[in-house]
Amino acid sequence: MNKVFPKLATIVGLTITTMLMSCHNGNKDLFPAKDGDKWGYINDNGIFVITPQYDGAGEFSEGLATVSVGDKSGFINKKGEFVINPIFDCLSTFCEGLAMACDGEKIGFINMQGEWAIYPQFDYAEDFSDGLAKAGNNGKYGFIDKNGVFVIDQVFDEIWDDGKTFSEEMIPINIDGKWGYYNKKGQLVIKPQFDRACEFSEGLACVNINGKSGFVNKEGKMVIEPQFNQYAYEYSFSDGLAAVKLNDLFGYINKDGEWVITPQFEEASPFTDGIAFVKKEPGKNISVSNNEVCYVPAKGYLIDKTGTRISDLLFDRVGEQSEGLICVEINGKWGYVDTKGKMIIEPQFSTARGFSDGLAVVGVGDDRNLRQSYRVGVIDKKGKFVINPQFSQMSNGFTNGVAEMVTDNGDCWECCLINKSGKIIAKWVTQK
Predict the structure, then answer these.
(1) DSSP string of 371-428?
(2) How many domains does the chain have?
(3) Which of 16, 123, 197, 419 has the largest count of CB atoms under 10 Å?
């Protein structure tokens, strides 16, 4: 059976997680850490507040954390006291007051007293979001409320899944090979009629009929007739414009379907804060020694919403844009420019992520060789290392000033928790 979440298990030596997609309240002040072969919880000074005693430990969410004892899981509070005894085969974190739990081969939901709020009955389920949860049996899916009642019946072969539930109160669904839209009230708003359909963005959604893409509004009216090449998830509106392809070239249209920037690009990204990345030429394959072929990417540049270049700089690729800086790649190295296209941090890194709270994770060395030469560290907005590159990987950034790092040492993972000043507050080793 394909459950949405596994039993508690160590994931590449990092913090134990109980969900592939879990609920977080952003209020974490205790962190799972391992000592020997047992897990406990430390504070941001690296001191164990909850003694290592568990076989697995997850992050706190809504005041409780999932822990495992043997092959059973339960919940503890921040004093380390069991508030829900370890009697379940598997658990998720709490989201909106309910947590998924397994009883044998079926999934249900428990409340914060450990009582079944929704008895185990599903083959598949996801966390609650805005009062609804995706659930299903025998390959058919729908949405339940917190009483376990199907608000949207489990009749769908497929439901749009990008890590969110509804976008702008609507969700694409597939019935018998055709796509339509339901709203959160369980009403079929747009009947299944499209070959493909994506989520709504800025009031419009891209749909595909007979190989051509157009846009519908929330009443199902085709406001921009299907005319664009193929179907692409990136065909969505942002900053009032959508990048679409006509006759094999990308341009940008407004919500009336009018060309604001005529088709002229081989590649075109969505606009973010008034800036997009485009390429006018395709990449090329060139012959090298021993009859090998090497792909050389074309160069691109940044434009504003009129199609005007905002700087003379050319880039291979563009990455995340955050806190006024944009990751850019030039000749295989990553650096950062500002929103006017001015180079702020010279290209020098093998990999680069966007900034968060004034810090960004970057990598140096060969990123194809995590065990040997490649290492990640953390820089500030001047490009100065505040945490020297010494780790193989970093988790999803800092949470309450602490991040998880891991280093590949061949037959084991060396794991640690580190604060923003670079101080390691906890470390442990996990065998592969």
Answers:
(1) TTT-EEEEE-TTS-EEEEEEESEE-S--BTTEEEEEEE-SSEEEEEEEETTS-EEEEE
(2) 3
(3) 197
Quick check: is 222 in a domain?
no
- Largest CA-CA distance found in the chain, in angstroms, rounded: 68
Q: Are residues 380 and 293 in the same domain?
A: no
383: its two tokens: 């490009």
Write out pLDDT tens, residues 158-200. Answer: 666 654 568 899 988 888 889 999 998 888 999 999 999 989 9
Same domain, 306 and 316: no
Eight-class DSSP state of 310: S
How many CB atoms are closer than 10 A to CB 310?
Answer: 18
Question: Does any domain span residue 102?
Answer: yes
pTM of the full structure: 0.81
Residue 399: CB atoms within 10 Å: 16
Residue 106 falls within a domain, yes or no?
Answer: yes
Q: What is d(CA 124, CA 17) in angstroms, rounded to the nearest whole number? A: 18
pLDDT tens readout for residues 107-165: 999 999 999 999 999 999 999 988 999 999 988 888 999 999 998 888 777 666 654 56
Question: Which of 163, 134, 168 lies closest to 151 in space, CA to CA?
Answer: 134
